[in-house]
Amino acid sequence: MTDGRHDAESRLARIERLLENGGHELAPAWRRATRGEPRWAVTAVILLAVALQLMLPHRLTLQPYWMLPALELVLLAGLIAANPRRVEPRSRWLRWLGLALIGVISLANGWAAVRLVAGLVNGTEGKYAGPLLLTGGGIWLTNVIVFALWYWEWDRGGPMARARGHRQFPDFLFVQMQSPETAPQDWEPAFLDYLYLSFTNSTAFSPTDVMPLSRWAKMLMMLQSSVSLVTVVLVVARAVNILH
To answer: 52, 149 in Cβ contact below 8 A?
Structure first.
């Protein structure tokens, strides 16, 4: 009975959309050309990642410790100068600039994570529980940001390609794509949707309500879950051991 009612509601919503558009069903926003998404969310999260990197103990970072964060700020400034308000498809070099920025953030956080894990295994890190939890939490949160940026940058060719509406098949299937009647007609995935995907994958160690469709998406989510699991298990286990 519940399924029949849901089907009836879906058909009714489709009929209403047809009547509103003169008998022609309008393609969902994520499948057609639209304006680029606002830049503020991704800019704020990148600045948070830079701040987290600067707060890490200098022994865990590439030296000099300010070099990679400074490079990230320079790359971010270039992106903002080219597209200050929206992520719009203006030039191909902007995509490469964005990929370079994500690559530098990934390198900085990956290096810190490897140094922390190696120090925990060798017994040279984690003398005090409080600082260890803060350091591990900072690396974990930056890891969430890093993978959110990769998901956002690669899904259907990236934000600029999505704005053009060139690619029909998504790499990630959001709930609004399966049930368009639950979302406005102008809904399309934006950076905060990918940030949510990254956070839930890091906490549940598996997909939740956003499903990976392409092979690269599945492999990237598997890598993120593995990194998150190792970081959480080692940091928490060491902290508990110190407290006892």
So the answer is: no
Helix (H, G, I), strand (E, B), or coil: what is residue 70?
Answer: helix
d(CA 213, CA 190): 18
Comparing C-alpha atoms, which of 192, 191, 189, 198 is closest to residue 221?
A: 198
Q: CA 135, CA 140: separation in Å to the nearest integer?
A: 9
Q: Who's near 228: CB < 8 A, 6+ residues apart?
A: 140, 143, 144, 201, 202, 203, 205
The amino acid sitting at 159 is P
Q: Write the CB contacts of 203 (distance below 8 Å, at least 6 apart in sequence).
A: 228
Question: Token digits for 119?
Answer: 């120090």
Q: Phi, psi at residue 124, to the nearest 5°? A: -95, -10
Return the beta strands (E) in the chain as ranges: 172-173, 211-212
pLDDT digits (tens, 9 = 90+) for 31-64: 788 888 899 999 999 999 999 999 999 999 999 9
- Give the residue from 36, 32, 37 showing the smallest Cα distance to 165: 32
pTM of the predicted model as reported, rounded to 2 decimal places: 0.86
Regarding predicted confidence, which is higher, 229 or 5? 229
For residue 190, count other CB atoms closer than 10 A to its CB.
Answer: 17
Instruction: Find out whether 68 and 32 touch, Cβ atoms under 8 Å.
Output: no
Q: Is the dihedral of CA 41, 42, 46, 47 positive or negative?
A: negative
Residue 96 has a CB neighbour count (10 Å cut-off) of 10
